Structures are given as C-alpha cells and as structure tokens.
Amino acid sequence: xxxxxDQMPVRTALAAIARDFHSRGWMAGTAGNxxxxxxxxxxxxxxxxxxxxxxxxxxxxxxxxRSSDGEVQQRLRENARPSAESSxxxxxxxxxxxxxxxxxxxxxxxxxxxxxxxxxxxWIRLPPLExxxxxxxxxxxxxxxxxxxxxxxxxxxxxxxxxxxFSEQPPQIPxxxxxxxxxTVWGExxxxxxxxxEIVEFIMSYMARR
Length: 210
What we know:
Layout: H1 10-23, E1 33-37, E2 44-48, E3 62-66, E4 72-75, H2 86-95, E5 101-105, H3 108-117, E6 123-126, E7 144-149, H4 155-168, E8 175-178, E9 182-187, H5 190-208
Parallel strand pairs: 7-8
Antiparallel strand pairs: 1-2, 1-5, 2-3, 3-4, 5-9, 6-7, 8-9
C-alpha cells in the first residue's frame, strides 16, 4: 500500500480521501467536495460528482473540469454532474497556481467555532497553537486570522468574493471558512492538502470546546 496519497493515481487518492473524511464525520451524507489537478494537464482538475455519498465514492465518481472556464472535459459516468462548488475550486487554482489539491469539508466543530468567534466579521483569530506550524506559521505567539466568507445559495457569488478579496489581500494561511458551512483547504500536493485539513480541523475542534 502507498505511504502517501501522492504515490497514488489522482482519482484513487481522491476516492480514498473522501472515504477517510466521511469516516471522521467531515463529509456526512453527500456533503463536501474534493479536487486535484490532473497529472496529464495542469489546466484541468478532477472533482467529485455532485450528490454522491462520500463514504462509498470510487474512482469513476469524478469529473474532469477545465480551470479557466469550468467546462467539463471528461465524465466517467453518464449524467454525472460536477460538484455545485466547482467554481470555488476554480478560484483557488486560479489564485494559487502552486496548489494541486483543494478539499472542502463540513464539520460540526468548524461551524461552532465560526459561529462563536466570527461575529459577522470577515475573519476569525486562530489561537496560537503549536499546530499552526502545519500551516507554515513559524512565529512565536503568532496572530493568525482565518478568512470567513458568507454563505450564499448562489455558489459562484462566493467564488467571486474569494477571488476579489484574495486578489487584493492574500490569505495568511491556505484555508478559508464559509460561515455555517465548512472549511476549504488547499496544498501543493494531495498529501499536504490532506494534512492541512487535519490541522485546521484540530484547531476548529479546540476553538469549539473553549
């Protein structure tokens, strides 16, 4: 068995990560979405199909999308539809060319932490925990803010807000929170993005329990 998700084919890794996150309660039912750039074409990314239970996802339950315009390039199942939040993944890959994986999860702790701490602002201050090193924060007693975006039924409107804000002011960490919804995290490899989700969810759990 591979020791890292980066040693697996992209679709195999995404399906395995979906099942893992589902088992932790971070992708209950059909919630959440995962993507990663194609090994064959950096201008495209694989993303989980819409409306499928993440606990039983397999390698054919993914769609290939072009980053520039969201056009579907390949379907592995007839009538498969890309995740409703594909536009957010497009925004991340456009804003951060080094990103190769983008994961969006829904957790109870994440929603509680945001509800308790954001007070309708555009950020929440994270506690200066040692775990922040996993997000490349190496300062002593750091002051780190997690960007928060309002949730909308019109998902492209969220993506547009992400593009605008991060174009003007890049985030301190490779993560964002959609209020009362969930965390989105990205990384330069599949394994790095996976690790960063664990780090962010650890911090959210800490904040939810304070």
